[in-house]
Each structure stands twice: as C-alpha cells, then as structure tokens.
C-alpha cells in the first residue's frame, strides 16, 4: 500500500484474515475480543485468557468432539435465559441403511460397539424422542475459511438467578406471583457468575446436587477444578439495612434496664447518694414518704438516662458495626474490587482505572450516619512527591448514587501543603451508600451445566425464572434442550474416552448408585429435609399406634371387659401421676426426645405428637399403682422415657432405611433414563473443554441470525401468558408446636 511504511504493510500482509461471512467467523471474532479484554480485567489468571493479539481458533478435532462456547451479554445481571450455549462439532460419517450406524476412521474403534448401543437406545426412545437428525443434530455451516461444522444453540443463563427466599411481589391479573426480572434485589447475595475464560479439561459427566441433595440429583456436566475465576455482586443497601435493624433493635428502656441489673452495686450507691441529697424533704406522713420516693425515683431515672445514653449508643453502634464487619469478612482475601454499579447495573466507579485502585475496605465511625458507622473503600495512596502539592489530590469519580460531600473524603489542601516533602498525602476514601453495588473478582467452585426444572411444562409454570440456581452454573432454559445437550455429551464421551473399558459400558445397577451417593443419601435423610415430613409422620403413626383389638364376635371366647375395680384403680393412678412433681418433667422429656430425632418444624404434627405422648404416658402408668410414692413415680418416668426414646430411635432408623431404599431405587431408575454409567460417579477421566465469552446483544443476534433456522430465544417469548392459576386449597389450621 503506497500510504503505509514497509513494515506496516508487511504486518498487514501476514496478519490473520478474519472471516465475517459465516457464523463460525463471527463466533471467533466475538470470543477473541472478549477474552483479550478479560485479560486486562483479570491479569492474575492469564491461563484462562487470550494474550495481546491472539485469536481464537476452533480446532478441527475428531468427529463428534464437542466444542462448547457460552455467550453472555455484557453487563448481564438479570434472571432471564438470554445467554447462549453454542455446541460445535465435526459430524461423523454415517452408514444409512435399516438403522443408523457410526462409521468413521477417526473414531475410536474399540469404543464403537458401546457408542453404537447408546445411539440405538436413544433412537428407540419413544417416551423422550431424540432431536431431529440424531445422532448428528444441528445446522450445517461451512465456508472456505472456517470449513464445515455442525452447530447447535441453546438459550441458557450464565448467572445465578433469583434467591429462592427472596419475596416476589409482582403479580398477574389473577393474583399469581410473578418474577420481576428488573428487580435486582431478588438476586442472591454474594453468589458469583463465572468470569469469561477458556476452561480446558474442566467438565465431565457427573451429578448435579449429588452431594448436597442426592434425592434431587441428575446427570449434568460437572466442573472438575476446585475453583475458577468468578465475579460477585454485593448490594451494599442490604447490608446497611441489616445494620440499621441491628442498631434499632430493642428499646432504650429495655437496654438500660439490662445495664442497670449488671450495675447493681453502683445503683445502690447512687440511690443512697440521691436520698442524702433529698434528706431535707419531709417523710413524716405516708403522703410525704410517697412524694420523697417519687422524687428519688425521678432523679434516679434522669441520671440513669444521662449516664447510660453513651453506653446504649455504643451498644447499638457496635451491633451495626458487627453487621458491616461481617460484610467485610465475607469478601475473601483473594477477591479484588472491580467496580461499583447502580442497582440498574450501570457502572458508577471503575476501580481498574489508573489512580483509582482500592487497597482495602474498612468499617469506620461516621457521626453523620444514623447508625454512627459506615463502610468505605480506601484507595491506594499516591507515591511520595518531591515537593509539597499545591492542591488537594484528585478525588475518584463520584458515584452517581452518592452525594459528593458524603461519598468522597479527600485530604485537605492545607494539610497537604504543610506535609513533609517526602510524605504521601492521606489515602482517599469512598463511603458506600445504599444505592451502591460492589462488584468483586474472586473464585467459584462446584459449578455445573444443568437444567432449570425437570420437565418442559415446569419451566412455563415457573414463568421462566431460574429455579435451580447455584454459583457460576450454566443453566438451560428448556429441559428438552438440556436433554439433547447431555445426549450429545454422553455420545462424545462414549466415542472418544481413551480409558474406556467393558465395565464402563455395563448397565448401571442399584449397587453402583449406592456406592456413588448412598452415604450422602443417608446423611441427607437423617437431617430431616422438609420433603420427607409426611413419610416420617406415617412411620411414627404406624409404629406408635396401639394394637387393634382382636375381634372375638365370631368365636366362642368371651370379650374382655374392664371391671369396675380396674377402672377405679386406673383413675386413681392417673390422678396420682397428674398431681405429681414428675409430671411436668415427663412432658419436657418427651418433647426433648422428639425434637432430638426430628429437629425440623415441618415434621411436627399435632395428632402424631399426641400419639407419642400417649405411648410414653402408658409406659409410665403401667408401672404405677395407687400406693406409689413420689420416688416411685420418678423411677417410672425415667424408665418410661428410656423405653419411649428407644422406640422412637428404632422407628426413626427404620424410617430412614425405608426412605433410603426407596430413594436409591428411584434414582437408579432416573439415572438409567439419563444414560449414566458406573464410571460417571466420580471416576471417569474424560473431560470437556468450555469457553465463556461476553458480547453485546446486537452481536449475539447477528451471530444467531446466520444459522437461519432458530432465532435467539424465539421459543420462549417473554410476553407469553402464564397458565391460569389453580384455585387455592383452604388451609387447615396448624397447631402450635411444643417448645423444643
């Protein structure tokens, strides 16, 4: 080119020619831009990012080797499924005859029988039919530069979703609660989203929730490394609100009374001193004595209010300080401060900017705050100057959510001018406000690629919110999409795994499931999770119900009837026990034994608990007579409680065992449907690469439009009407549980 130097022309000639004619070329461009930009944000994790002028290149690997790319919208912090999972692979050659046959010289020949069996199984599945063109679903794309690929795209979210405990206040015309996608206060505290990066050999076929909630676990792609880079959001307003609640807890009178009780000796001395001051007052008559006592009390109250006011304020301030210190402690030492955002997600402070780096967070005194403390960020100090500065150091850009006077405290010019020539100015600080959201950079662990709900209709019923969220996970909007995705992963693993043996391909057994999650299942059930409360009550009612009387109407045996003397004795024993000192102790011990075995409030049932009390009471009464002493009653109570506790423990153990067996059987059946193999329970060495990039919505739409057969998120319009709500069932009055 005549207008450039020779060297510049040389570099231009040898530079890579970017393809913008196909979706693969666009995907290379967007991911390359994202991962080069990420290096600037996260220089400490260079292995995950592109360096300098590097470009992404999708390698022409063996057929059916999946290349997984997640595309996230820039500045995305919503609960919507508007990110994208892209699956690229080189299709294998197939023989088409009476049935589909895998045949390609690049496929691992020793693995083909197992892979072929899996393909045949999926093709024969009538209940959950495979995707169109299985086992080679997707859209064919090709160009001279990017070669030939088969591509699938799935709407997903790469963000945590809503906090399940957060209140949803938005409702439809029928009064049904709906998620408010713009209410960012519903996002969970501190839960991070995985940062863009290239995560090679990081995911394997395994279980989602297998350790934490094994009854709900299912096949998914599971992260193998302990941790990967992640961004976390800390809504400062939530912590300030909690600090304010801690500051305002209790009345001044109650706090003062508690302090006075601790200062009993000082109070006596104070009362004596006041009485001495008022000794001139007459106390001869009853009225005069009452007036004297009233005057002493009023003076005592006035002095106590004045004396204890600073201590009360100190206690309240310390309570608020503890909440803000907890916020400070939650931000790990390896987390870096990236930026401040407004609740809308708009950036208000860039801490990566030159001269704007944060050195620490601190909880400081603040007389202008209603809670007398604040949380603020301390900027890194400027280097020492050779001459005194003539003006105050430049303040960081003021947060758009904070008043400049309260947000930035900088060194005064007079202090700077009088400082030593080699002394740096005091560090600048930024007080955080309720409208600030602090974004940090740290690490996350245990992230998976999984579904949002179990069935397709469930996703619509839940109004498209992320119901199955966890830190850093890539969650599929559609259960059917996720099933198709996992089938491709399962097939790729079966074809390419280099350590595959005959044991890997055998049918999964109940013993395999027990070995994989049995210990976790027992621990989970013993913790009495809410979903098993009905089963526990059924087991208790069966175990503690009195035996059914034998029907002797058809036999010649006479019916046993209680004699008047026996009834009279029974009434006397019951009265004796009711009036004994051990009766209240008995009630407390029954409750203590029950709550120890079943600590969850959800397990309490009034009728069941009465049945348990009756059982224990009968054990006590059967050991008494109308001549029993208080000591006899105490011994009977101890023996009865011991037998009751033994019976309760045996019933709990039997219930755990029965639930365990049932859950293992259910999981075995589900895992067979999922296609899991014995080696998927933590031992398989075959791993998948994953790449996560960020780009604009416009770029994502441009990328998907090149496919031609599926618009981005077109299957899930956000304005789809929710299903009509079912009429609410009348709530049965719930009895108050006995105190633990």
Automatic annotation (TrEMBL):
Biased composition (Pro residues): 719-731
Ranges for region Disordered: 543-566, 714-740
Domain of life: Bacteria
High-level lineage: Bacteria, Pseudomonadati, Myxococcota, Myxococcia, Myxococcales
Protein name: Uncharacterized protein
Sequence ranges of Polar residues compositional bias: 543-558
